[in-house]
Every structure is written in structure tokens, then in C-alpha cells.
Design goal:
single chain; 5-stranded parallel beta sheet; 5-stranded antiparallel beta sheet; 15 strands; OB fold (Dihydrolipoamide Acetyltransferase, E2P); 231 residues; 33% strand; Rossmann fold; alpha/beta
């Protein structure tokens, strides 16, 4: 079992990484901490294999905290600022993740951490049934089968589900990275749909739940190919 801790001053960021860890066979999160002081105490009482840590935190930064340790577990830095990458790898970090972290990107990190003989379960992680989306100040678990379609609204998304409609702080491209490509199709620069809810296609529109959605010309051929292959 690979024992992890998560260190980040943002509660939602911690929750997201912990939710990813909990979905990986052979990994577990032993604790979450909002800063370096709390994490330092934990490292002296817990057997930690991997520390997921933010760089920009009040007080002691993640970089300076890791530099201060005499004995360091495997380190994965998480930050909103890509310019710290060079410093991170000078410390021999396993990986460097830029927020918001998608499950697809997280799995690449896991493959670097996990011994080759234990990676089969990770490589087969195509059965993810739900994702976490940031709604207001919460991370909300959403079942993939409930998502009918999503549309971009500037910096936000409107995600239409069978039982609710969510306003999510996420780009459409990031959402696309979270969704399995075999089930969800980009039909427009501002729209992704779940193909199981497509009622019919007529001209340059398709219908889902009595709503007509436009199909972009550059997406039409791919859409038709995906639907033909699933018949």
C-alpha cells in the first residue's frame, strides 16, 4: 500500500486530490494538512511514501518545506503557477501538477509512483463512474451516466444532468479531459454531449431531452463516425 498525505491551504484542492487517491487501488491518504507546520508533525508520526504538496502557501512555501527535510518521501508538487516547474524538478520531485488537476493527468503521476508490477489496476482505470465538479464552494460528485450535455458560459460551464443543472467553474477543455472519450463527444466549440442521450440528428442539429443543440461543421464528421462505430 502506498501511503500519502496532502498538503494545501485550499480545502477544495485537498479534497480533489484525496478523491483521486481514494479511487486508486493500492493507494491511501493518511491525512490532509493546510500548511507546512502541520505536515512536519505528521511526517514524524506517520509512515509516508508520497507527499502531494502545494507550492504557494502562507508562511513556509512547499518548496522551502521540502528543502528543509532531512529525509524526504516521494514528492508531487501541485500549484496554479507553471513557472515553478524548474525549481520543483531541481528537488527531484516525482511530478509537477498544475491546477485544476484532472483525473487523467493524475493517473500519469500515479504510474510514476507505483511499482511496475502494481500498475495493471491503474492502467485499466477506464471504469471511473463519477467525477468531482466545483460548484460554488463545494466539490460535488456527479455520476457520469447522469450527465446529458455541458455548455460553456465564459469561464463557467452549465452541466445539464438528468436530475439537476450545475454551474461549474471549469473550462470545457478541462471537463473534456475528465470525461471518457468513448461516451462523450464534442459537437461544438462550446458543447459536449453524452451520446447515450442523443435522440436524433437532423441537419446541423441534434436533440437531447427536447433541446436542439447545434453541431459545429468541424465536429460533424467526428460525431457521425463515433455514432456509426457504436451501432
Amino acid at each position: 500500500m502506498i501511503n500519502c498525505i496532502v498538503v494545501d491551504d485550499e480545502p477544495l484542492a485537498r479534497q480533489l486530490i484525496i478523491s483521486y487517491i481514494n479511487q486508486i487501488p493500492g493507494m491511501q491518504c493518511l491525512g490532509e494538512y493546510k500548511g507546512a507546520v502541520e505536515a512536519f508533525a505528521a511526517l514524524h508520526t506517520l509512515s509516508v511514501d508520497v507527499i502531494f504538496i502545494d507550492i504557494e502557501m502562507p508562511g513556509i512555501s512547499g518548496l522551502n518545506f521540502i528543502r528543509s527535510l532531512k529525509k524526504t518521501p516521494a514528492v508531487v508538487f501541485i500549484t496554479a503557477y507553471a513557472q515553478h516547474a524548474v525549481d520543483a524538478f531541481e528537488i527531484d520531485a516525482v511530478d509537477y501538477l498544475v491546477k485544476p488537476v484532472t483525473m487523467e493527468r493524475f493517473l500519469k503521476t500515479v504510474r510514476k509512483i507505483m511499482p511496475p508490477q502494481d500498475q495493471q489496476a491503474v492502467l485499466q482505470r477506464q471504469d471511473i463512474s463519477s467525477i468531482f465538479l466545483k460548484v460554488d464552494r463545494r466539490l460535488v460528485r456527479v455520476e457520469l451516466t447522469s450527465i446529458m450535455y455541458a455548455m460553456a458560459l465564459g469561464d463557467y460551464l452549465k452541466v445539464y444532468c438528468t436530475d439537476q443543472t450545475l454551474i461549474v467553474y471549469l473550462s470545457l477543455g478541462k471537463l473534456e479531459g475528465l470525461l471518457p472519450a468513448q461516451s462523450f463527444i464534442r459537437i461544438h466549440r462550446s458543447t459536449i454531449v453524452n451520446k447515450q442521450y442523443i435522440q436524433f440528428i437532423e441537419g446541423n442539429f441534434l436533440r437531447i431531452n427536447d433541446t436542439d443543440l447545434p453541431i459545429g461543421l468541424t465536429y460533424r464528421d467526428h460525431l457521425l463516425s463515433m455514432l456509426s462505430n457504436s451501432v
